[in-house]
Write a structure and sequence with these properties.
The chain has about 500 residues and is of the alpha/beta class. About 45% of the residues lie in helices and about 10% in strands. It has a 6-stranded mixed β-sheet with strand order 1-2-11-10-8-9, sandwiched between helices. Strands 4-3-5-6-7 form a 5-stranded parallel β-sheet, sandwiched between helices. Strand 1 and strand 2 form a beta hairpin. The mean pLDDT is about 95.
């Protein structure tokens, strides 16, 4: 897109009396304020033209109709069908799998596994990040089970995960799309050993497998009655809506899981049917493109001003960087523009005393996004929550306004962009809508860039080399530095 002279934020507010009303939106019960970004109506008009030229409407309909949108792997992306928003055929398949999942949840709650006090959920990447976010955000006050998540292959991580669990009353959920992932299977074998060492007579009888490859799970010794399947078209980082969410459904209750899906479906309807000029995920993608392409911003800061959303920045790191961290187009040609920025962040107010120095006075421009919740946790002191919200809003104001001083050490240049996402309350429905918003924003960015957000070949090479080294092959092809490190570590 043509480079244009862009006014300061304070000038934009002065020139546009109705700026707030034009750049703030409500969708699926969430308030989105993009008025403190450098978007204006002229830029939005240009981006709308770009979206039309990129075939945004056609690509969006392909996503919801079950067409092939992951061309490199020849697949549709059917995560929207998991919440009832895809093609009728895909929705029917997802519904049948969800009924099977519900039956297993009912069986566990009804005592089919005996007395269950804990769940050890094993996976990696999207097989863990999504369920962990849900349980941490929504299951703090009245957890039905002691839920622990394990992804790292480090033995210390395994010890930490199982320490508070009673092996006699713990079930193990193993989530892997292919059921061949080295880290997941290694941790699964460690869990079997842990159960056996504690005297559990039938360790495999306490295992639930979640996979798109049920044959591989059965080959690992898991009875097919305890294998939950999800579709090949559901990518790992989009999988929390599927059977991968079984741990969340157990921890939170089935009604909460259904409410999560309903909230996501409401955001689906907004993204699919709203006019492009008021389509919140698309407008958010316009801001992303503006800062990456015209301001040269290589990162975006994501700050959750609610302790219950402390895992959201980590979840978004995978969603956005694994989806859009690409350098070639769908046609395999070099991409013309910067793709995904580095997504990073933390929790307010801790982050204010760690990284906000750079955000306010550093030489690197970082667009910032605040996520906050209007109503605090019922058990929380209301004054604490009020101060938390005021801090979030004040940071956005300070980034934009700045402050001049005769002392350059105490000067703030201002004109630093931020957006604010404000939920009325943090419940299953609103969290489902929020996560779906970020999914659709990621997809909209990919359409504008002409890239495929649904493959992730970039994660494979290092894993392949590690496997070859572990098997004792191909060491001679390694560089001298890597060979020396292997020798020094004695591995």
């Amino acid at each position: 897109m043509e480079q244009k002279s862009i006014r300061r934020l304070d000038e934009l507010f002065a020139a546009e009396p109705d700026r707030l009303s034009k750049l703030s939106f409500e969708a699926a019960g969430i308030y989105f304020d993009w008025s403190k970004t450098h978007l204006d109506q002229e830029l939005i008009g240009d981006f709308l033209g770009r979206a039309e030229a990129a075939g945004f409407a056609r690509a969006r309909e392909s996503l919801f109709s079950g067409a092939i949108v992951n061309a490199s792997e020849g697949r549709p992306a059917t995560h929207v069908a998991e919440r009832g928003s895809g093609s009728p055929e895909d929705v029917d398949l997802a519904s049948a799998r969800r009924l099977r999942m519900r039956a297993l949840v009912d069986a566990i709650e009804g005592g089919a596994f005996g007395d269950v006090t804990g769940i050890l959920h094993i996976g990696i990447g999207g097989s863990v990040l999504g369920p962990a976010l849900l349980v941490d955000a929504l299951g703090r006050r009245s957890p039905q089970f002691n839920v622990r998540f394990l992804s790292n292959i480090d033995g210390a991580a395994f010890d930490d995960a199982v320490r508070p669990l009673d092996p006699q009353s713990t079930i193990v959920v193993v989530a892997s799309k292919t059921f061949t992932t080295l880290e997941t299977l290694t941790n699964f074998e460690a869990a079997r050993t842990w159960l056996s060492a504690a005297g559990v007579g039938d360790p495999d009888g306490r295992v639930v497998a979640v996979t798109a490859n049920p044959e591989a799970a059965v080959a690992q010794g898991i009875d097919e009655t305890r294998v939950l399947q999800f579709g090949e078209g559901v990518g790992g980082r989009y999988s929390l809506w599927s059977s991968v969410g079984v741990t969340a459904a157990l921890a939170l209750g089935w009604n909460e899981f259904e409410a999560l899906l309903e909230g996501a479906a409401e955001m689906d309807r907004h993204f699919r049917f709203a006019e492009t000029s008021a389509n919140v995920p698309l407008l958010a993608a316009f801001a992303d493109r503006l800062y990456a392409e015209q301001f040269g911003c290589q990162t975006r800061g994501q700050f959750a001003y609610d302790e219950r959303l402390r895992l959201l920045p980590f979840y978004l790191q995978q969603l956005e960087m694994e989806s859009n961290g690409k350098s070639v187009t769908n046609a395999g040609k070099p991409v013309a523009n910067p793709t995904a920025p580095v997504t990073w962040g933390g929790t307010g107010t801790d982050a204010q005393h760690a990284v906000f120095q750079l955000l306010h006075q550093g030489t690197v421009l970082v667009p910032v996004e605040f996520v906050a919740v209007r109503e605090g946790d019922d058990a929380q002191d209301p004054e604490h929550h009020r101060l938390l919200l005021l801090n979030a809003f004040a940071q956005g104001a300070a980034l934009m306004q700045g402050r001049e001083s005769d002392d350059p050490q105490r000067s703030y240049c201002g004109n630093r962009p931020s957006a604010t996402v404000l939920l009325d309350r943090l419940d299953a429905r609103s969290l489902g809508a929020l996560i779906a918003f970020y999914e659709h924003r990621t997809f909209a960015n990919a359409v504008l860039l002409g890239i495929n957000p649904f493959d992730q070949f970039g994660v494979e090479l290092g894993k392949q080399i590690a496997r070859q080294i572990a098997e004792g092959s191909d060491e001679e092809s390694l560089d001298p530095s890597t060979r020396a490190l292997i020798e020094r570590a004695g591995v």
